[in-house]
Amino acid sequence: MTSYNPAVAKLEMPSRIKKLPIDERGFPVPKFVAWIDGKPDFRTAEASWVSKSHRLRLCWQCGEPLGRHLAFAIGPMCAINRVSSETPSHLECAKFAVQACPFLTQPRRPRNSYDLPEQHVEPGGVMIQRNPGVTLIWVTRSYTPFRAAGGVLFRIGEPEQVLWYARGRAATREEVMTSMDAGLPQLKAIAEEQGPEAVAELMKEIERGFALLPA
Q1: 24 SS3 class
Q2: 10 Å Cβ neighbour count for 107?
Q3: How many angstroms separate the Cα of 19 from the Cα of each of 64, 69, 115, 186?
Q4: C-alpha dihedral over 98, 145, 83, 170, to 10 degrees?
Q5: How far apart (Å, rounded) are the C-alpha atoms in residues 157 and 141?
Q6: DSSP code of 212?
């Protein structure tokens, strides 16, 4: 039996995560991951899991029923527009993910888009192709699906708690600001294409988002 990778073995692992299969590197395989030719491809979400997890109210990470509190692991730009392409997780599952996922814990690690499987489908809306270096766990009690170009996205409700992470630990305000400053020009460019009203709305969203930064 494959043992856990040292990078995750040292972490506090939720009992729900311990029930998941382990890949050949020793990483737990989240429920959303697609299996291609008998192996998990962490870059690709199982096509049916988005709708199934939403419909049955199941955790994006572990696949077990959710409770009242819903945790979204999102990038800084999603804190601005309050939109996620993934359904929510248990808080403890989201915390584990932001400490265990190599992409989320290594800011310089690029997205690996080489030789993506045919089953791979990009999420709806406009995706900013970068490693933000910072992840936000947004805890709320509500979210709403809506149609977007290319698929379905989820508008997340008012936050009851926000936890910023970088490199697998609590992020500093400077780290969050650096990530936001790098991503905002792309959001502004999209809004400018849509017109003055979109730009004005984005400015309000930016002000609202910056109020959530760590002290």
Answers
A1: coil
A2: 15
A3: 10, 21, 30, 39
A4: -20
A5: 7
A6: T
Return the structure tokens found at 47: 């096509």
Q: What tokens were used for 70? A: 């819903």
Segment 13-58, tens digit of pLDDT: 999 999 999 999 999 999 999 999 999 999 889 989 999 999 999 9
Cα 183 to Cα 84: distance, rounded to the nearest angstrom: 16
Query: Across the strands, what pairs with 154?
Result: 84, 145
Note the pLDDT of residue 215. 87
Residue 115: both structure tokens together: 């030789």
In terms of phi and psi (left: phi > 0; alpha: psi -120 to 50; beta: otherwise), the region of 176 is alpha
Return the DSSP state at 89: B
Q: Please state the separation of Cα 44 from the chain's center in Å.
A: 13
- What pTM was estimated for this model as a whole? 0.88
Q: Nearest to residue 189, comparing CAs of 123, 126, 133? A: 126
Which residues share a beta bridge with 83?
Answer: 155
Alpha-carbon torsion 112, 99, 152, 20, what sign?
Answer: positive
How far is the C-alpha of 135 from the C-alpha of 78, rounded, in Å?
Answer: 10
Helix, strand, coil percentages in the chain from 3-state DSSP, rounded to 5: 35, 25, 45
Q: If we measure between CA atoms, which residue out of 110, 83, 111, 105 comes closest to residue 190?
A: 83
Instruction: Record the tokens describing residue 52, joined without a space.
Output: 């199934």
In the block, tokens 């609590």 appear at: 170
